[in-house]
From TrEMBL:
CDD domains: Aldo_ket_red_shaker-like. One of its GO terms (molecular function) is oxidoreductase activity. Residues 15-314 form the NADP-dependent oxidoreductase domain. Coiled coil: none annotated. Belongs to the shaker potassium channel beta subunit family. GO terms for cellular component: cytosol. Pfam families: Aldo_ket_red. This is Aldo/keto reductase. Keywords: NADP, Oxidoreductase.
Length: 332
């Protein structure tokens, strides 16, 4: 496993991180989840990402139990706040009340005194940004988080938050966007702003919900037990990638992966890691062997010819529109 700095900070993270968005507490039983975390640890992953809203808060609990026997100082644990976790009018968003109450809930579920990174899961259009950043500053000063990050924020929103963080003397070090061979909406605006301001990307869905593994084939039903067949595990998210045009195009990547000595999944993870602004790629898993396969992308360098060949194949189906980075207009 290789390690990278998280943005322009001194924090090193494993360039492949383990996330449990739609697996722990929902798609797979706890014993399987624990086996996947053990595999991640055995493979050298030290960075683990979750959120309070995943599986209705159960994902944090499962991850906390899975990491309980590990040495806390040898891990980087990330979580997030924004989506609804409470029933009352302040049960979501980035108000001071919700942030300060949510960090305590996350720490309790994770079984730790602090998280290494606390992230704003989306931008809150209904809370003054200075209130949000002041609350995050208090979380840091209380020792409950070491660094602050955001997720799926636009370049404009990142540019507005960065000077506030600087004035408050806290480290805004990361953004967590969707990014893959097929989904490149951050490249035009978010990446340049982040490079300028010292944020690194912690990218999610580098496998495009599993489509880039090649297991879904045009004209065929999705494999039994796959994400596309399970409403609890994100079938709605993967639907956009299941058109025959996308699947036919993705299948054309396999000879390139074979020539490079990589699986399709390894090629996809390695591709996002070629971007110098990417600090880590988040993988998920329902089986330990998926973890062991994906981590082999660490340290892989794709040559310019291969990158060009990938672009030539997928260009007609790549999504690049920066406006697709957005947060809900109404508080959830």
């Amino acid at each position: 496993m290789e390690f990278r700095h998280l943005g322009r900070s001194g924090l090193l993270v494993s360039e492949i991180a383990y996330g449990n968005w739609i697996t722990h507490g929902s798609q797979v039983e706890e014993e399987a989840a624990l086996a996947c975390v053990r595999a991640a640890l055995d493979c050298g992953i030290t960075t683990f990402d979750t959120a309070d809203v995943y599986a209705g808060t159960r994902a944090e609990e499962v991850l906390g139990r899975a990491l309980r026997s590990s040495v806390r100082t040898e891990l980087e644990i990330f979580t997030k706040v924004f989506w609804r976790t409470g029933k009352g009018p302040n049960g979501s968003g980035l108000s001071r009340k919700h942030i300060l109450e949510s960090i305590d809930g996350s720490l309790r579920r994770l079984g730790t005194d602090y998280v290494d990174l606390y992230q704003a899961h989306r931008f809150d259009h209904h809370t003054p940004l200075d209130e949000t950043m002041e609350a995050f500053a208090d979380v840091v000063r209380q020792g409950k988080a070491l660094y602050i990050g955001v997720s799926e924020w636009t370049a404009e929103q990142i540019r507005a938050a960065a000077p506030l963080a600087r004035d408050l003397r806290i480290r805004l070090v990361s953004n967590q966007p969707q990014y893959s061979i097929l989904w490149r909406v951050i490249e035009a605006e978010v990446v340049p702003a982040s490079q300028e301001l010292g944020l690194g990307q912690i990218v999610w869905s580098p496998l495009a919900q599993g489509v880039l593994t090649g297991k879904y084939r045009a004209g065929e039903q999705p494999p039994a037990g796959s994400r596309a067949t399970d409403d609890k595990s994100g079938a709605g998210f993967i639907a956009r990638w299941l058109g025959d045009d996308v699947l036919t195009t993705v299948a054309r990547l396999k000879p390139l992966a074979d020539e490079a000595g990589l699986t399709m999944a390894q090629l996809a993870v390695a591709w996002v890691l070629q971007n110098p602004n990417v600090s880590a790629a988040i993988i998920g898993a329902s089986r330990p062997e998926q973890v062991r396969d994906n981590v082999k992308a660490s340290g892989v360098r794709l040559d310019d010819g291969l990158l060009k060949a990938i672009d030539e194949i997928v260009d007609p189906i790549v999504t690049r529109d920066p406006s697709l980075t957005s947060s809900p207009a109404k508080r959830p």
